[in-house]
Amino acid sequence: MMLMPPFTLHHPTTVEAACELAAELMAAGESFDWVAGGTDLLPNYKWHINTKPHVISLARIEGTSTISANELGCMIRLADMTEANGVHPVIVQAASKVASSLIRTNATLGGNLCLDTRCFWYNQGEDWRRSIDWCHKADCGTGADCRVIPNQNTLCVATYQGDIAPTLMVLGASVHLIGPNGARTLPIDAFYQLDGMKKNVLEEGEFLLKVTLPDDAAKRTGSYQKLRVRDTWDFPEAGVAASWIEGDPASLVIATTALESIPRCHPDEVAAIFADGWNGAASVKALSSAMQKSVKPVNNTALPPRYRKSMVRVLTKRAIQGLLE
Amino acid sequence: MIVMSGGYRQQPGGAGKTTRKDGKRVAGKQAFPPPGSGGSNPTMAPRDLDFIPEMVGGKEAQPAGAHVHDRARTGTSVGKPTALVDSNAKVTGQAWYGDDVRLANEVIGKILRSPHHYAKIKSIDTSKVEALPGVLAVATGADSPHQFGVLPVTKDEHAMAVEKVRHVGDLVACVAAVDEATAMEALNLFEVEYEVLEPVFDPKKGLEDADEPIHWRGKYHLARTNVQKRVFQEFGDRSLVEKPLASSHGKWKMAGVHHGFTEPHAVVAHWDPNGRLQLYTPQQVPHYTHRALATVLDVPMHQINVIRTFVGGGFGGKSDPFPHEMCAAILARKSGRPVRITFDREEVYWINRGRHPSHIEVKMTADEDARISGFDIDALIDGGGFASFGHVTSYYNGVLATAPYELGSFHYTGARVWTNKPASGAMRGHGAVNTRCAVEVGLDEMSEQMKVDPIDLRLANLLPPHSRTISGFRITSNGMREALEKVREGSDWDSKFRQMPLGKGLGIGCGFFISGSGLPIHWDPNRFPHATVHIQVDMDGGVTVHTGAADIGQGSTTAVAQVVSEVLALPLEMIHVRSHESDTSPVDLGSYSSRVTFMNANAAIRAALEIREQILAAAWEILGYHPNNLVLNDRRIYYKHDPAIGVSYLKALHKAQEDKGALIASGAYRSPPMGGVHKGAAAGLAPAYSFSAYVAEVDVDVETGIIKCTKVWAAHDCGKALNPLAVKGQIIGSCHMGLGQVLSEKMVYGRTGHLQNPNLLEYKIPSVHEMPHVVPIIVESCDPEGPFGAKEAGEGPLLPILPAVVNAVYDAIGIRLRDLPLTPDVVFKGIEKAMKAADVDDPLDLESPRVTHGDLQPVLVKRAAEHKTRDQARQRSEDTSQYVNGVLFGFDPNIPLEDQVEGWRTATEPDPEQLAELGLAGKAWLKKEQRHMGGDE
Fold first, then answer.
1. What backbone phi and psi angles, to 5 degrees, belong to A203?
2. Are residues B426 and B333 in the same domain?
3. Which of A278, B340, B565, B829 has its CA 20 to 30 A from that of B150?
């Protein structure tokens, strides 16, 4: 049996109360985690990975479940992210491919965006991790080395395997963060920060409140392509999102996920193609190859990195196929 | 014999009123007295002639001829789709699995596991653990010095490590505490000092001498290697393989796979007030656990009661006696409280016993008549840290490839090595799956070289019913031909194979599996039966059946209930099978080697016939008609020429019970003497064999290498489907499990030798999205010795799906892949290679294979047609002539082949001149045993 270590669960009902609570715990020197749907955090807790004595639930906070074309609250469930609720089709496409239908009814947008990075040296039980003498990301005070790329003790290369972030990137979304030190808004590209441990710019006590999309996102069309072994349950082994304004190839934006420690946009690769002028199928091919070269997956997920890298070409091609129509 | 026709003057339970309006009886019509002996229907059901064989007057067709059990048929249960008798308990959540057992005052046991692959234990300090409040007992290897193992010849396990740990996760110590949190805390307080040793992960390395072999077998140890078992078998005339018309040479690498059953292992041990051990465990083979517990605990077997809980899936993974079962018993003895241990999924993978990771090499040849002149198989299998069933697996990897085809020669070298990984063991299709895949793909390749259809190649080379394989196995019923014909027709093979566009493919694969191991490994089959069933019928009329057959979800309880219900003509609800406790169950070898239906149902039929005889004798006394003239039907016994003259089952029963009380009968099954006399002749020997043929259709995404199996036509010869619903379930379930192995499942051992995916997210069992539409096709060859003709259906149906998919992938993209599972990256690598070879840029420009039949095709079709006639005559026993493997090559079946063919031989050790050319596993024969080296006494 997997027994979760004990923790105190807090249920603030307003954003202010949540921030206050966070500030109190910080002042008392107590560490804590935020929890939304719990489908990511709690399995890790069962594995005794980086557990904290306090967990603050966002579930009862008012106003976190807004859902419209321009605003998505952090607590909306992935299963509710449907076109009928006004969500952009590209986001819907990604949301409907996350894990399984069972998980999607509980998992939230905020949780998906703040998903912990994953690595098969890290997402394991305690006995297992003890047998490899721990790893950099969950070193249990031993200062252990990274097991994926040994002899470098500065960087965690765990992979970000969320599906929805790249679609928000290509639609130009912004994230709204809030914490004891106030609120801030930044483009989602700037939300993620390299290193599998740092993951994103959230500071202690801060949480992701909502995502907003610009008005012209609705004009965009696009696609999200996901590589996985099984058509359910599995995290992406690679994911490519693309969007463009119909009839305007130059408006193309591409983002990838599940290939590195953060999801990211690829403006340089796209720009390089358009520098030579748009040339239909040939450009699609060239861009696909350029995308393949631009990513650096490592060996810490189910499929080997060389294959995942090769598939970026195919996924890109499929994601932007619509441009040729 | 009684044939009920519409014109018969008295219809039991028939239509029409029996009394006139004035209350007088209608002439010739008589109301039957209600049987009054239980069941939900107060009136007797009419005889169900559709389920009574035509040989005894019914309407059930018998293309394969009469069966010895035909006279025991009553049309009650056999052959009817029947919901499993324990299904209500399962669907309502009332079935009690291992972890559902709750005893008063129970405490929780936890196991301390090795963090090292291979290490000597220098010391274990338990003082801090013992001092922790809430800890009730602590045990280490010192508490369990006795060795055990599932096979008597390879007992190499301890309850907890003594001296050495052999893989990460190996058991070191255990603790019982008042609750789980305390037990987990206690685990961190053990102080164990290890001396880490150099581990072995690669089975190839296991063939070499090591400083510290993982186990030491004394004078039988092979040099200083880690070889646990080596096998050499050669039959037939090896000169036939010279100058072949076609040949195939495939080197396979197959990853280890796990059973992936839903229920993790769980056990509760309790020493009752009388000092007897009561052990609750979800076991496939409670009897082996019973034996091992007695050894390990130093307690006679009669002081132990093994209680099999419901089993949440086993597939071979719950058939070993397990160290955690011993741990629970030891902790319970020490603490004086019931102790429960439940595994998490990681521990399930560490105890493993899944399919062996294997390196398999298959060379095969065909002669100018497209006869298979030779199979040359070499299998190196990775056993992990313990022997488990490995001794048998080592044989099965070879010998189960000796049918269904007639072979000119057969050569097999196998070796199983210990490595520092979780132990491999028995898994559905035990030992036969990997080689079968390699062999069937080889046949596909040869048929392409010979420009013939692969199905026709098979049809023209099948062993007939009632024949002997090259290794001496006795084939009785054989539905291979019918299975092949049915899938060919169902899949529209002739208009699809080699004719579909790139990315779409069709492939064929066959299977052959034992229906019960012929050798009960703990005793002499000539002295003790394989299975015993007791039946008791008391005054209420209900029938209690005691069997040790372990229902692991396959429906063995239902099968036993069905055959008893059939023989006694009682509704299924009147049959109560008791099989959970060793105290009340006759000794049984449990659920493995697909033996249960064949052996237990046979034993049950025998016991039921004895009861039936007693009841009929009582009816004779009451009715005055000899039992030969009495008919049993639905709780009533009547004179066959006048159903009005009869007696209810209950009345007859009470008559039979006069002066003696409850009727009791015991039936047993033992297999007939069979097989050769060479070393290892017993491996693979079975009283009957199942046959199967599948056609799989796949879609391959040539850009990503992702394979989708879309449809499977699955024909399986199960002899006689006692319960067609269960047989279909087994076929579909087997497809799912086999698809997992061929497409996505593997135990991934990483760079450091650790099992990287011990969880159900990363161990990729196919989901419902990956599941193809399976068309189950039941073939009934009616086995002469099977219960009502039945054979196994639990394991054999798994075999053909692997080669069918691999062959279909070739049909789709023209690439032969021999690295299982065919994960997208493996396929993609193959596609890249093919693109390079074909000098194309885009995988969509690859060509899929096409075939034009050559001159041999009509020859094969003709031969297959002749053989079909031959087989039909043999199946129906119209032709009872001797047939042995070799007749196809022109030899006389009545003269020992050794006497008529120079060079025909049976060998179980290589000749010195053969040593140089042995395959990978064959290299084990280059080493000598210690006793021949003058070492270790």
1. -95, 165
2. yes
3. B340
Report d(CA A242, CA A248) in Å as an integer. 13
| Domain membership flag for residue A295 | yes
Can you spell out the DSSP letters for A17-79? Answer: HHHHHHHHHHHTT--EEEESS-TTHHHHHHTT-S--SEEEE-TT-TT---BSSSEEETT-BGG
Given a cut of 50, whether residue B301 has pLDDT beyond it is yes
Based on the fold, state whether residues B355 and B217 are members of the same structural domain: yes
A229 belongs to a structural domain: yes
Distance of CA B247 to the CA centre of its chain: 31
Final residue of a structural domain among B621, B640, B666: B666
Whether A279 is covered by a domain: the verdict is yes
Q: 3-state secondary structure string, B767-825?
A: CCCCCCEEEEEEECCCCCCCHHHCCCCCCHHHCCHHHHHHHHHHHHHCCCCCEECCCHH
Residue-number span of the structural domain to which A274 is assigned: 223-324
Encode B887-921: b = buried (16+ Cβ within 10 Å), e = exposed.
bbbebeeeeebeeebeebebeeebeeebeeebbbb
Closest among B644, B763, B838 to B260, alpha carbons compared: B763
CB atoms B750 and A120 under 8 Å: yes
Per-residue pLDDT tens over the stretch B231-261: 999 999 989 898 899 999 999 999 999 999 9
> What whole-number distance in Å separates Cα of residue B595 and Cα of residue B591?
7
Residue A212: pLDDT band by 50, 70, 90 thresholds?
very high
Q: Is residue B531 part of a domain?
A: no
Can you tell me the distance from the alpha carbon of B895 to that of A204, in angstroms, rounded to the nearest whole number? 87
Q: Please tell me whether residue B683 adopts helix, strand or coil conformation.
A: coil
| Chain A interface mutation, best of B172, B180, B267, B761, highest count of A Cβ atoms under 10 Å | B761
Say whether both B290 and B380 belong to one domain: yes
B835 close contact with A: CB closer than 8 A: no
- Rounded to 10°, the helix B556-568/B602-623 angle is 20
Domain end (from B666, B696, B712): B666
- The whole-number pLDDT of residue B42 equals 63
Interchain proximity A127–B767, CB inside 8 Å: no
Q: Is A81 inside any structural domain?
A: no
| Cα angle for residues B503, B508, B509 (degrees, 5° grid) | 130
Nearest C-alpha neighbor of A69 from the set A216, A256, A178: A216
Q: Is residue B436 part of a domain?
A: yes
* Tally of domains within chain B: 2
Q: Are residues B416 and B277 located together in one domain of the fold?
A: yes
Is residue B231 domain-shared with residue B303, that is, in the same domain?
Answer: yes
Q: Looking at CA atoms only, how far is residue A54 from chain B in angstroms?
A: 18
CA distance linking residue B245 with residue B633, whole number of Å: 60
> Which of A230, A307, A314 lies at the smallest CB-CB distance from B764?
A230
Residue A299 confidence (pLDDT) above 60: yes
Q: Which one has a higher pLDDT value, B374 or B672?
A: B374
Q: Which domain holds residue B79?
A: 30-95+536-666
Alpha carbon distance B461, B473 (integer Å): 17
Same domain for B259 and B153, yes or no, is: yes
Give me the CATH number covering residue B644: 3.30.365.10
d(CA B651, CA B655): 6
Distance from the A30 Cα atom to the nearest Cα atom in chain B, whole angstroms: 22
Query: Can you give the CATH number for the domain in which A250 is found?
Result: 3.30.390.50
Distance CA B676, CA B660 (A): 47
How far the first Cα of chain B sits from its last, in Å, is 70
Give dist(CA B674, CA B474) in Å, integer. 7
Q: Kindly report, residue by residue over B768-819, the tens digit of the pLDDT.
A: 999 999 999 999 999 999 999 999 999 999 999 999 999 999 999 999 999 9
